[in-house]
Each structure stands twice: as C-alpha cells, then as structure tokens.
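quick one before i forget lol
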Amino acid sequence: MSLNRRAFLQQLGFGVAQAGLLAYLPSRAFAGEPNAPHLVRSLPEAQGVASSGILDFLDAVELADLNLHSLMVLRHGKVIAEGWWAPYAPDLKHTLYSLSKSFTSTAIGMAVQEGRLKVSDKVISFFPKEVPAKVSKNLSELTVKHLLTMSTGHAKDPTGAVRAPQNTNWVKAFFNEPLDLKPGSQFVYNSAATYMLSAIIQKLTGQTLLTYLEKRLFEPLDIKGADWETDPAGVCTGGWGLRLKTEDIAKFGQLYLQKGMWNGKRLIAESWINDATSFEIQSVGGSRKKEENDWLQGYGYQFWRCRHDGYRGDGAMGQYCVVIPNQDLVIAVTSETSNMQAIMDNMWDHILPAIKGNELPEDKSNQAKLRQRLGNLALKIPVAENYSSLIPDISGKSFKIDTNEMNISQVTFSFSPDACKVSLENDKGKHDILCGLGKWKDGFTDMSIAPVKLVPTPVPGETKTRVAASATWLERNTLELTLRYIETAHYEKVRYTFSGTGVKIEFKKSTSILSGTPDGRPALSGTIA
C-alpha cells in the first residue's frame, strides 16, 4: 500500500462504539451452501483446482496472522471455496474502503454507455457554480479521465483537506486545492478525485451514486442492502464508504471477468471493461522492487493492475476483488491487516499454483478437509480467565466516572456464569453491551464515542451497528473487553482495571494496535458511586 493511501486512512480515522445487545445474528453458513441464485457452487477439483492449494493458503494466512474475515474463490464462474472467520458471517456487509472506487468507476462507465458524458469532458463543465473566480490552466484542462486514473495534477493527496470539518461543499473545496502539476503527468493516489466522479454522477442524473447503481448493477447481480457513506450535502463519498457482502464482491469480479455480461444481458460495455482494467498510468506504492510488488503494476480506471496479468479493486486493510482472466479466476477477500501485500503473495504462492487445468480427479480426502476447515474458520477469542474472585465485589455496582471529553458519566458491571454486561451512561443516555465470557455475544451498538460513525449516513432506519463482544480476566483485577464491529473491518479492546473502590478505563482501537500508535482517547478514572 502506498504512503498516500496510509495517510488517507489516518485522516479517515476509526470510530469506537459501546452499547446494547438487542438481537442475535443469523448463524453462519458452511462452505458450499448456496447463498444466492446467480453463483453456482462446485468442488475445486471439478474446476481444475487442487483443494490442497486452498488449504495451504488458509494455513499460510493464519500462520502470518493476517486477520482475514472472509474468502471466496471462483473458477469458471463457480464458487469452489468460501469461508468466514467467526464472528464474521456471509449475511453481514463489510466496509470496503477503497474497493468502493471500482464501483464508482463502473457507474461512470455506465453513464458513458448511456451517452451522458465522455471521459474527455472537462471537470469544471459539470459544476459552473463551484468553479473558482480564477481558473488555473491546469484546472481548466482537468478531465474525467484524469479523475479516473488518479492523475489530477495534485502534488499530494487533497482528500484530507477536502473533507475537513469546516467544508460543507466538497466539490468547491476540491476546486480550491492547487493543481501544481499538469493533469495526466503523474499518478498521485487521490480519494477526493473519486468523490468528484460520484458528484458528477449525481449532477448528471439527479440520483446518488448508490441509487444510480441500484437498477443498473445491484439488482441484476442480486446485491441487496448496500449502503454508502455520504458527504454533508448527501453525495456518496465514492472513494470509500460502500458496504457489501463478500459474495457481492465476488459477483462484481465475475461480472468484470465476463466482460460485462450477466445472465445473458450486457450490463457494462466490453470496451469500458477493457479500458478500466488496462494499464493507463504508472502507479506508485509498496517497498519492494517492481517484479515483486503489486502496487507497481500500473493503474487503470480505479482498478489496480496485478502481477500474473491480473487486476483488482482493493481497499485499505485488505479488502480485495482480484481477477485473473488468463486463469478464469476471481478471489474476494475481506480483512483487517497491516500487510496487504502478504495476502496477495499467498494467493500467488498457493491458490494460483493449485490451478492444474480445467478438471482434476476427485480428491475426497482433501475436499472433506477443506469443507470442514472452511466451515469452522474463526478468529481467536481472547481468553485468559472467565472468573475472578473480584466479581462479587463489583457485580451490580456502579462507578461514577470523572469528567471527560467523551461525556461518559457512569459505568455499571453485571455478571452471570457465561456473560458480563457493561452499562455506560453518557450525555446521550444509557447503553448496554453484553460480552460472552470465553465466547462471542452478537448484538448491536448505538453509541459512538469517536468522531467517525460506524454506520454510514443516511441509512434509512439504521441507527445501530452490529458488534460481537467477548470478555476475559487478564488478572484478578483486570477485565478486558474485545468488541468486533462485524460490518466494518475493525475492533477495539477496552480494559477495566479495578483498585480498591476505583476503576481505570483504557481504550485501544485495532488500527492503533496494528500500527503501534496511541489510541488518542484518554484513560478514564472513577470510583464506586
């Protein structure tokens, strides 16, 4: 991943939430169980892939602790392997981060197909009211294609400046950022450029990007429940913020592999597929030499080129839609990792060599092992001790919290043999979260105590985000909660340390754990009320 993309993620931040368990999630589906009518399930060997190679991939990514959340592998248009690391599950959406960009590109391709615009159109022509009083030569030459290829002429990524809290008009803010370079001359990763593509779609059609894609892409692919983060004016962010299920990602990749055809109907022009996924400009990123680096293979229209003559949409922390046309292969992955290259390395080292032709002899032993493995994938539940002799002294007790910037005023603990309920009170009310002791408890949270919301807005009727929670005693006086926000890529740990009649509360979000950086939220203190 390039430094610019890391910088964008830091600008984006990660919100943390606490609160109430209201319902259980549906149970997990095992590998091979049909989830949608459009993707057929098959055995790996029937599609020319050795089951042992996929098993090796699973071994490798777990040994490297790459924190995958889901995997789906398609060969010849059929699902040959699928699995979710519990508490993630097939019916859950997942934050896509910059994988969203490839969907935005698709919308532009459809608009071009409909004759609404050309990639050679000047960007300022769509927004006459937002254009600065004095238009620079570089800005006057900026085209839709420059937005698509991340070659806008910005010397550095302007996304953080564009989405600064004081900006309510992101289009105007984009135009106000200087273009120091000639458009088309240099690749600079730029999520704000993708936002502008979304704004163009809304300007041309009167519909949000999400609505525009609904009839044209999502309904034909049987993608349901998608949502997308918006700017203050209600424009989809475009460059990030889309949430889809893993199978939706796989369908999208298969649509591109099929050159825009789906169930005998053309959804996207083949010419657009070819342009979008071809080398348009030299990309930058990664620390390895070009022949070993998937970030130096070039960039198309919001798609990265890959080694092995492939291409991909990808998002921060390891959200992948990888397409290898010469192997008739699609791989969809969701994860939270600090080493995105390692996930692709393991694809090339294990899945690709497992492709031996169009059909292999049946391998019942490895097929059974793979089915069992995929059906029982799970992230490790942090477990030290499920009981502390301190429980009788604190169960049912409330702790008054000293004044703090998160406005948390009180915390109450209640214990049962297999669970711990933590109730927090702040200026918005009371919020409960139920944590399993030695296991996950699945539910919802509605309280954010950090600036980035876990639920994109506006999502009609949705005010809570899903959470899987567990708790363990690290020591007699130290209780640690692990909260996984299972429709995002992220989790957090909350540690309660008890001393006499007092408690200290410390927070650590997963992005800080991965990067080794401070969380940013202060430790809180309180005493029994």
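fyi The two ends are 49 Å apart (CA to CA).
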